[in-house]
Design brief:
The complex is a heterodimer of chains A (414) and B (299). Chain A is an alpha+beta fold. Chain A has three domains: 207 residues, Rossmann fold (3-Layer(aba) Sandwich), CATH 3.40.50; 84 residues, Translation factors (Elongation Factor Tu (Ef-tu), domain 3); 103 residues, Beta Barrel (Elongation Factor Tu (Ef-tu), domain 3), CATH 2.40.30.10. Chain A contains eight helices and 24 strands. Chain A is globular. With 299 residues, chain B is an alpha/beta fold. Chain B has a six-stranded mixed beta sheet with strand order 4-3-2-5-7-6, with helices on both faces. The longest helix of chain B is centred in the N-terminal third of the chain and has 16 residues. Chain B is globular and about 55 Å long. Classes of the chains: A alpha+beta (414), B alpha/beta (299). Chains A and B meet through helix 2, helix 4, strand 2, helix 5 and strand 7 of A and strand 1, helix 1, helix 2 and helix 6 of B. Strand 13 of chain A pairs parallel with strand 1 of chain B, so a sheet runs across the interface. Chain A: Its EC number is 2.7.7.4. Chain A: Pfam families: GTP-eEF1A_C, GTP_EFTU. Chain A: InterPro entries: CysN_GTP-bd, CysN_NoDQ_III, G_TR_CS, GTP-eEF1A_C, P-loop_NTPase, Small_GTP-bd, SO4_adenylTrfase_lsu, T_Tr_GTP-bd_dom.
Amino acid sequence: MEVLKIATAGSVDDGKSTLIGRLLYDTQSLTTDKLEAIEKSSKQKGYDYLDFSLATDGLVAEREQGITIDVAHIYFSTAKKSYIIADTPGHVEYTRNMVTGASTSQVSIILIDARKGVIEQTYRHFFINNLLRVKEVIVAVNKMDLVDYSEEVFNKIKADFEALNAKSTFKEQVVSYIPLSALTGDNVVEKTEAMPWYKGQTILEHLEALEPTDVYEKGQARFPVQTVIRPKTEQYHDFRGYAGKLYGNNIKVGDAVTVLPSLTQSKVTNIHFFDKQYDEAVAGSSITIELENDINVTRGDMIVKSDELPQIEKDITTTVCWMDSKKLVGGTKYLIQHNTNRVLAKVDSIKNVIATDYSGTTPASQLAINEIGEVTIKLSKPLYFDAYDKNKSNGAFILIDPSTNTTAGVGFIK
Amino acid sequence: MSSVLKTNALESEAIYIFREVISQFEKPVLLFSGGKDSITLVRLAQKAFFPAKIPFPLLHVDTGHNFPETIAFRDKLVEELGLELIVRNVQDAIDEGKVVEETGKYSSRNSLQTTTLLDAIEEFKFDACIGGARRDEEKARAKERIFSVRDDFGQWDEKNQRPELFDLLNGKIENGQNVRVFPISNWTELDVWSYIEQEQIEIPSIYFSHKRKVFIRDGMIWSHSPFVYQDEDEEIEERIVRFRTVGDMSCTAAVDSYAATISEVVGEIRASTISERGARIDDKRSEAAMEKRKQQGYF
């Protein structure tokens, strides 16, 4: 079954939980026992409606405070495909969670309260979707029932958003607008008669029509080696396979390839998946490949087509989203994890903090948690990479704090 | 002949995760319960390392109250694939006085498994424990990372988890810590069953309909067994049932079913309005039952 990954961000007030609950409810994805548990909890809290956030807020602290702290994953399916929603809180102090959710999603739903229109939070969501290059954005104009299903209100919001879209750094992004009411179910799963002026699809129709693809865009083929498979059995005595996940594009038997960082030339002789062999594998496959000559390839190396070499540099300019409570300052050392490769890195300088409301940059010397800024980094060994906007998988990395081992930040190479 | 490998995103992701485990850790182990999720993990691990053998052992924390069909299945699978199996018994922890057996109507050895598991991790110095938990199963599991760090006491710090971005998994830990790894995090129950059907994976017979001596309590179908406490007024009856999820006998309820083949089981699940863990007696203890157990080191 195909899987479509969606990210949502927003506060409880936007009706985000209600929208997700409505999607689950109207696709019959809420099982009786889960629904009963929601009814019971809603009643205990004295609500006279079903509080669907109780289905998504999994931690005791979240239920007590009525907030979403972390990324929650919600699953539902239709006859056509399976859906995974990465649901994140929308406030500025959760920017890192939004970035996390957006990193693995093909589609992003931005909720707007029809009564409030485009607000600061909308800017931030859109900015993150631009920065991470999420392929599809659905602007869900919610609570249309509270503005008398007014076409004028919808058109005004759409115009405001298009003005925002004009500032987008990712022009290929597809933006769609849907007027709806999560509470009443208008245009969520079923088409409504309340807005005859709207001829477009409901949210679910829109999602059903999208073809699930890898979240990574098409680019040049990149094969980061995860591990070397050497069975050392009688039958496979000389077998030496390089196992990894293929990104960017297809790879074929017979392709002339180069192994990085050694720059050794070779040729693909076999593509294995479990006990079968193939002539060609598509991006997104976890495969094992054999090369023509016996060369030294280890974890962290990357196999690419010989006429499509990436950049190989020891100094990189990046946009970093900081995720740790310990601030990022110049001169400190971190481990960079880029694909399957880990390299010791020194933060050279922090240039600025980028405002997530498109108002520009402010010169800075440090990045605090949830801040995004331009950072230059020096590496102890060269990295073989592409710019993030050329090849997502090969342009993103995480920074690991060697003293705590935590994932302290995420970066996008320019 | 030109053959192009079409890829299944969930399978590809799981294989990727297995390969990260073997590369980032020194002593991984696969937690094997004999249930369908851990059987699916074994197939995915086979695919990840073929033509080499699965490069880590299986660990079964045996409550002593398992369905005999599960144990027989386990031993056969291990033999066929030439795997290493480690079994550690909850009974030993009880005999050594480390844990006290629960008593009464709802007594179960389910939560006692935690001590045995943590002891085994310490005994073998396992640094990565691969499990078949899925995020769709339960709301605390929905918050779980793919690489989920546990401290020296096996505890889960749910409010302070590492962010996981793209495919980048960070398995760096201190000595004494370990990571729980969940390769099928993003699979749903239906995904697992569809995969079992597609791959024709063999599973224990109790997943298919059979005649069983049972009794009804709290609207759930309990197995009649010396391991399950039964009140005198709880009458034994014979019913055609199957199990949708398999824990040990004291924590798993059966469902009425005539589904005798995988495709019938898949059809039944598609039509079902009850969630899988709706038949887990261990989750019904309180709203935060799973979160509390996980904080203490339960898998």
